[in-house]
Amino acid sequence: MSLRKVHFLLLSFLSAALLALGWPQYGFPGLLFIGFVPLFVIEDEILQHRERYSRFYIFRWAWLSFFLWNALTTWWIWNSTIFGAVMAIILNSLFQATIFLIYHFVRRNLRPMPAGALLLSAFWIGFEYLHLDWDLSWPWLNLGNGFAAYPKWIQWYEYTGVFGGSLWVISANVLAFNILKRMMTEKHSRVTGPSVAFGMLIVIPLLISFLMFNHYEEKGKPVEVVVVQPNNDPWSKQYGLPAREVVDKLIRLADSKVDSTLRYMVFPESVIYDDIWLDNIDKPESMQRLHTFVKEHPQLSLIVGASTYQYYGKIKATETSRRFTDTGEWYDTFNSAICIDTSRHYDYSHKSKLVPGPERLPFPSLTRPLQDMAFDLGGTVGSLGTMKERVIMGGRFDSLWVCAPICYESIYGEFVNGFIRKGAQLIFVITNDGWWGNTAGHRQHLTFSSLRAIETRRDVARSANTGISAFIDQRGIITQQSKYWEEDVLRGTMHANSEITFYVMYGDYIGRLSGFTAMLFLLLAITVTLRKKKI
């Protein structure tokens, strides 16, 4: 291997290490501000000597960096499934490397354009935005998520959402690279300006955020809420227990925290799994027992995760419909949140951001033959049903409305906004994070709820079957949390806020603008390339 290749290899490793060491929960996000710099050094070297390197040469080094970053931060998928870990890490790093290749292609064809923040921000954030809403969606490593464990740094997410953080990271990296390049070319006299700009870019958003944090006060009416963590092992215990035994355990744990002032109780994802058909929700014994419990505490509304079914008869009503083998009739299965109160009117919401593989078969017309090989990230293999509209729950008696994002849904900011725009004043995240073991996976997932709290200025209660249950205030601070792999019941006072933030109102406008700008740059680069070929 030549000395130059060794140099490129070390730089690729360094970039991956900086990005990984900056990732939550225990990483220091300040490293994200320089994580791309080694890759920029490689890209610039290739650009300056493009007669020596092909236009695709950058791809191998970018893919190596992003593969290592993905592996170091999401390796915990392996605890659930080897196939799932391999596919998630390889595919996501391929997508990221392709974006970096496109960025290099545009730079190569639009010279002398410098490595500006606008150019890479447009392509990278445009990709992150598109990655939120397609069959292989996996936005876990969107750059703005990297500050999830440091909510004091990002209080302005209520205006920008996580894409504001992505823009912050990329802009800082571009400035840091320009400083380094000038130092390497001995233009020290020209370093002062970029250095000042870099310092201001880091310090000013931090100062604004600290001021917002210190002056923010919880808004809304106080509400007493209990979250239950039954700690049933999803691998060897949860789904082998009789449904009655699971419900009895939930009620036993909940009883210790109930009094006349309690307004909401939250049970975790998929904790009820006997046959709940939406046309006859009352029928299963588990639902009857929970309704009896609520009748004993009539002021209480109960949010519970359940597996539910919808019967369609002879009609294949949706693309996710399944067929009974004996009768040929059709039905859908859902991962649902159900609200139980004394009214006998059941609000329910179906999980609609589904994990590729176990909950939704990607590109079903192409991959249906591979359904048996679908990787299991913690759900039922196959395609679950979804719902187009967000549904809020529980405010029938006192107009105190809540929403219940289910597990994976809680990492999608604009998706959660849909609940808030409908009138949700509190967020209850119900999840089951035990599939990944005691790894970074459940800790990262916990911190992402802090992002939703800041973006929406809503208190968040988190009920995990296994994982970490918690209360999070409107500033994104975790005020109470359970320990991993222990039964627990937490009670907290939440604040039912009705105000709408700028981000809730306008959503991922930074992502949409970036995607549009990226397309303009790409079309311009293609046009220039075609014109050169004609000449």
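(ticket continues) Second input and output from the same batch:
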Amino acid sequence: MTRLLSPLPPWHRHAGAQLFRLQGIDRSAIGSPMLYLAASEGTAWNAGDSGVRLRADDWLGSGTLRNSFYVEPWARLSHARELALVVEAEGSLRVRVMRASRGRAAEVLREMHIDSPRRARTTLMLGSLSALPENSRLFWHVDAIDGACVHEAAWCTRDRPRERTGLAVLMRTFGRTGDLQALLAGFAGSAQTDPHHAECLARTEFWVLDASPGAEASWADAARLGLNLRVMAGPNLGGGGNASHLIHHFLTHCDAAPDTAPDEVLILDDDLLLSMESLARYVAACTYRAQEHVSSLPVLMKSRPTQVWEDGGFWGRLNFQAHGEFGRRRNLFPHLLKHGLSLEGFEHLDDFGPLNPCEYATFIFFGLSLATLRRIGLPAAFFLRGDDIEYSLRAQALGVPVITNPNLAAWHEPGHSYGQEYMAILHAVVINLTHSDSGAAELSRWFEQRMSEHGSIDDLEGMSLYLRVLDTLLDADSAVLTPGFERHYLAALPGCNAPRMAALPQADRERMEREAASSGVLMLPFLYPGHQAAASAHRSVVLVNPGAGTYRELAPVDPAERLALMERYVNALRRLVAGFSALQARWHERLAASGQPAFWAEVAARHEHHTRLLYEGGFERPADRPPARDAGSLSAEAARPHAVPIRELRERLERELSLLARLRRGETLQRRPPHPRPGASWAHWWRGLLRHTGASLKRLPSARGLLPADFDPAQYLALNADVARTGVDAATHYTQFGRAEGRRYRL
């Protein structure tokens, strides 16, 4: 891998001063377009130069979740102080910078007029970040006077970034190689059209540990990505185990070459959606880091793209927003901030204004400096669930604050199953035994409540799940939190998932829920169903997993079987309470040891013959790169040949494919695809078009193996009429373009 060690170059020069980009427009529209830019009706992207074409009296605004500028992370955690807005546009327009905060209406901070017959950059200096009122959210609003085109608007600073900043992005996967590759391809594609994104990627190295079967074949064409990329194959140690296994090899590499080691680390999940602009904003934040901290971001749902399902969590101690207890008291589960918050409109945007210091951040996106990672140690040896919580609490214990940065966002889908719940509860108890001061009585009452809830509806499988947790906690010979930890999970999880849930289409499930009361059916969540004193009065009890769209009807139970299970459960609880002190000491010791480098060195030694390097390559810089330019350098801009963006190539190719398909069907067209010159053959024209587009398109994933397992071509075309009109194959379009654009492929 070849990563630049020089600082990020200036984005613009104004009045002799260099301006460095902090945040540009995020135009990816992953999830939902309403989260990106607000505009008057009829306004659309101009795909030819990635700009927005405005007619007279049209307006365009950045006051959305993805393009607001939240001040607090920059003002409190960075050394950037002087703020400016640089607008790249042409035409006649008015630009206003607005400021808003929770409980206060938006107000105009500064404004300027732009009249330029050609594309140019204009700068509006805004003063010091620290002078802005606390919890401010900034956004710009453009009004077109006689028509205009907005190409870019970037928040910049005159303060210089650190001289040397490199970022290592660590990713691990099992079974989601295609999703991970599509994410990397999206990053690479953005670098083709945005020079700042290219500069950020030149300073970023991606480390991937792929534990999927057949990983070697999946990465045979990794060079097409053109990234600083190192791919390893290894055994499946679970999401948490794979993370620490990868971190161990990464740290070993850093120790061997300390002069070229990156100084920032970002842990990413393999099935998240994240725009390149979000990654570039994080790179910029790293180059201005002024305080040791851990950084995460708001996580929204893939299935409901405007709904927040996680924005950091509290374990009680700091939970002022939910009127939590202000002492050291914690419980088994953290309270998630803004959980379920809908962003369909704009009324909740200022809830993100105050900086969110929390005790728990997710490994979906978890950023920290290399020095902080070395100080905290490695994540605990949890196969799945709870590793990020424990690691965050360990950071807090060392005085490292954990924050979520609202200038960033990602999309991820929460999932629950009996196996996942087994690991979540087991690890939550272990975490509480170390990080909580609650004793045996509270823990016992919690398990009693679980038994009461599931026992009231004769859900023996649900009760057995918690009995499995108790048995594992009481087993002194368990492999949990030992160097051979994965053996326990690989043996235990099949039994946890034995209760089979049946899939049911959403429409049928909604109908069943509507008719449940009238038909005598009691429908409950398969986890935490609550105590149901009147369950026996219902004809049947149906447990539902809403996230997976599955259900299970409970069968009649033999009373003797239920009583025998309850007896085993109570006996396990009695043993837990009687031996609580010894049990707490044992798990505290194991948990502490599993976060140490020596532990993971032993794990690596055990799997040395199954861990191997598959690919290593360096970043390929886009051939055509616009330089940073002053507002007056119009002649140089006009003379420079523009690179053709991938979006334009894609749309041009789709248009011509559609025309050719119609010609093949014998339709009479008003317009035929243009010949390159008189007398040229159609074959010659087609080869020329493929040569023209191939250089950019070949770097995007095209194999059908990258498709999601539930991809339905007919459904994809039904949901995306513009794709259907082109006649392009649905699978090819999704893998090459649709996935990166966040297109839906199912209801």
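Agent notes: Residues 318-322, 624-649, 669-705 have pLDDT under 50 and may be disordered. DSSP finds 22 helices and 28 strands in the chain. Closing as not reproducible unless the customer responds.
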